Amino acid sequence: MELYVPRHAATAADLAQAHGVGGKYVSGLEMHEYRCAGEEEDPVSMALTVVSRLMERHQIAWEQVGRLAVGTESLVDRSKSIKSQLMQLFEAHGCYNVEGVDSYNACYGGTAVLLSSVDWVQSAAWDGRWAIVVCTDIADSPPPYQFLTGAAAVAMLVGPDAPVPR
């Protein structure tokens, strides 16, 4: 698993004070820090970062990936999926046969692609290659819910019998 969080941050205590809600974020929601993207970042750039890091740090060969699924609520361009943008990493290594989709569905998008990737690995359609699940988002909420905004990306490698540490 690889995680990317933008460098722009504020403590939850400072954010709660600025919003006039006392300790609600820290003690009520157990939030410690708020991260937001800079103008040079978007869901695609964060996704490219986590996928590149996952492959390099864990020494996964690009041709060993058979599925790439993305969960987000923050499409940059509704005419092109984030998965399509991520494929440039695979194509640079001569890999073109990677199935997958974007799930554009608020908070559930990441959960949906994780569950569907686990199902793929357990199905008769699985060809023995890894699945990569990418969750990337720059959440944007209306003023009463500003504490729910923020930005981050995570990439998870999914394969058979993979333990999930608690």
Write up what this structure looks like:
- With about 170 residues, the chain is an alpha/beta fold.
- It contains 5 helices and 7 strands, in the order E-E-H-H-E-H-E-H-E-H-E-E.
- The strands form 2 sheets. A 5-stranded mixed β-sheet has the order 1-7-6-4-5, with helices on both faces.
- Strand 4 (about 65-70), helix 4 (about 80-90) and strand 5 (about 100-105) form a beta-alpha-beta unit.
- Helix 3 (about 45-55) runs parallel beside helix 4 (about 80-90).
- It starts with a strand and ends in an 8-residue tail after the last strand.
Q: Which helices and strands occur, and which strands form pairs?
A:
Layout: E1 2-4, E2 8-11, H1 12-19, H2 24-28, E3 33-36, H3 43-57, E4 65-72, H4 82-91, E5 102-104, H5 108-121, E6 130-139, E7 150-158
Cα gyration radius (Å): 17 Å
**Secondary structure: helix percent:** 25-40%
- Cα distance spanning the termini: 13 Å
Alpha plus pi helix count:
5
The count of β-strands is: 7
Shape estimate: elongated
Mean pLDDT: 90
Main sheet makeup = 5 strands, mixed
Q: What structural keywords apply?
A:
166 residues, elongated, two-stranded antiparallel ribbon
